Amino acid sequence: MGEETRAEPSSLKGPLADVFVEALLGGEVGPLLRRLGNRAKITDPAEGRAAGLLQLEPALTHIRERALLLHAKYERARLTRGVDHDVAEGYLVFIRDGRSERLPMATLVQRGRAREVELRLYYTPKVMGLPGGRAQALEPVADVFLQKLAQDFLRTMTDGKVDGALLLFEAGGKIVDPAGLAHERASGALATALSKLAGGGFAMDRCASADDGRACVIEGNVTRVAGAEVAPHPALFVLQRGDSGLMSELRIYRDEA
């Protein structure tokens, strides 16, 4: 391994996925660059992809400046750690048109060989008044491991069996959509949300996963929604297990540009 691939020590402590957004908004671009290393890649749905230090510094600076124009702050929520992927979930709280907004955001960090890091941000830019659709489709992976609950969920969604997918949720289960709206089973909103997503069939190429026993994260390219083919685009599905072993909550991160 050459010396040029080695990242310099950083003052940031904790899993990168968990500290990234807060550190960026706090102006710690230098420590983030040292933590990322000179072979890192970052993808933002409004900014696109940046690779290597020459692209990373201006990209991070631009993402931060854009957020600060909206007086954005970050609230941490959850962290799921897998074998080679970590996923942090939280909320970006900002001011738009004089109103306070709270937008779900996820940060996925993929740890590669030779200390290579790839970081992908998931949120819906249009809620912030930003153009989106700049995140490139990911490379599908043939052997992404999923536990049975996740396998059953994807199978029923692919087949368009909304009633079958609904049975995988607890009685008090819900979906939280990319805009942060909750659709609860008790009110019938969960069934409606599943129909809009998978009625007629849903397809997502699997690209990565992380599972800590409480939550299973599936990353992939969405290619079909409600039976209609769509341009492949990356998405994160987080299946939260309840005490019953069924889903208590499904959180979806997807740029609906």
Characterize the structure shown:
This protein is an alpha+beta fold. It folds into two domains: 3-128, Roll (Nuclear Transport Factor 2, Chain: A); 148-254, Nuclear Transport Factor 2, Chain: A (Roll). The chain has six helices and twelve strands. It has helices at 16-25, 29-36, 53-69, 148-158, 162-166, 189-198; strands at 41-44, 48-51, 73-81, 85-96, 99-111, 117-122, 169-176, 182-184, 203-211, 215-225, 228-241, 247-254. The strands form two sheets. A six-stranded mixed sheet has the order 2-1-6-5-4-3, with helices on one face. Strands 8-7-12-11-10-9 form a six-stranded mixed sheet, with helices on one face. Strand 9 (203-211) and strand 10 (215-225) form a beta hairpin. Helix 1 (16-25) runs antiparallel to helix 2. It is globular, with a radius of gyration of 18 Å. The chain starts with 15 loop residues before the first helix and ends with a strand. The model is unreliable at 1-8 (pLDDT under 50).
Describe the secondary-structure layout:
Elements: H1 16-25, H2 29-36, E1 41-44, E2 48-51, H3 53-69, E3 73-81, E4 85-96, E5 99-111, E6 117-122, H4 148-158, H5 162-166, E7 169-176, E8 182-184, H6 189-198, E9 203-211, E10 215-225, E11 228-241, E12 247-254
Parallel strand pairs: 1-6, 7-12
Antiparallel strand pairs: 1-2, 3-4, 4-5, 5-6, 7-8, 9-10, 10-11, 11-12
Helix pairs in contact: 1-2
